[in-house]
Amino acid sequence: MLEAAGMSHAQIAAEYKVSRQAVTKRFNDMGEYSQASNREVTAVLPWDLSSHPAKGRLKDSEEYLGLRAFLRERMSLPVSPRSKLALKIFMNHMERGEVLDLDQVRGVRYVRREERDGSLVIRWPEGVPQDERMALFRLTPAHEASSP
Predict the structure, then answer these.
(1) Quick check: 82 and 32 in contact, CB under 8 A?
(2) What sections of 19-115 are H helices per DSSP?
(3) Please, is 84 exposed, middle or buried when counting C-beta atoms within 10 Å of its C-beta (0-12, 13-18, 19+)?
(4) How far apart are CA 43 and CA 33, in angstroms?
(5) Which of 7, 25, 64, 146 has the maximal Cβ count within 10 Å?
(6) Which residue(s) pair with 110 in the sheet?
(7) What tens digit of pLDDT does each residue of 41-76 get?
């Protein structure tokens, strides 16, 4: 019920005075939550997060959660109630003319959209081939019309 109300695993852990890992393990044991469900989404990201210095903090950030929810929706995968809120915030940033960028020091952050970003919701990293994955990261024409 707490997760459905929008609480993160860390917040639930604090409520019950257990570790976040214990909460996630319990959700996994119940079949309610699985990292495997995010593998499809993280597989399409053009960013390699495996060696990022702030990997743990980055993956728990609202910005990253919003991007994952955006991609889950695009891939017709279920989106949790907490992720739906993050998606709404994410889309507000997109409509204000921003994109999500990966910074090697600060992690993911919203930056002003530049011409090179086109209709993408992320700043595509230099040196990463532009391929069919890019279609998942494009705003729909309805969202583009409302962007500045």
Answers:
(1) no
(2) 20-30, 36-42, 55-60, 62-74, 81-95
(3) middle
(4) 18
(5) 64
(6) 100
(7) 888 999 887 777 777 777 778 899 999 999 999 999
Backbone dihedral region for residue 127 (phi beyond 0: left; psi -120 to 50: alpha; all else: beta): left
Q: How far apart are CA 37 and CA 135, in angstroms?
A: 21
* Cβ atoms 107, 52 nearer than 8 A: yes
Global pTM? 0.72
Residue the block writes with tokens 């990261």: 137
pLDDT in tens, 108-126: 899 999 999 999 999 999 9
Question: What is the DSSP-derived secondary structure letter of residue 33?
Answer: -
Residue 135 corresponds to which tokens in the numbers above?
Answer: 């279609």
Distance CA 77, CA 75 (A): 5
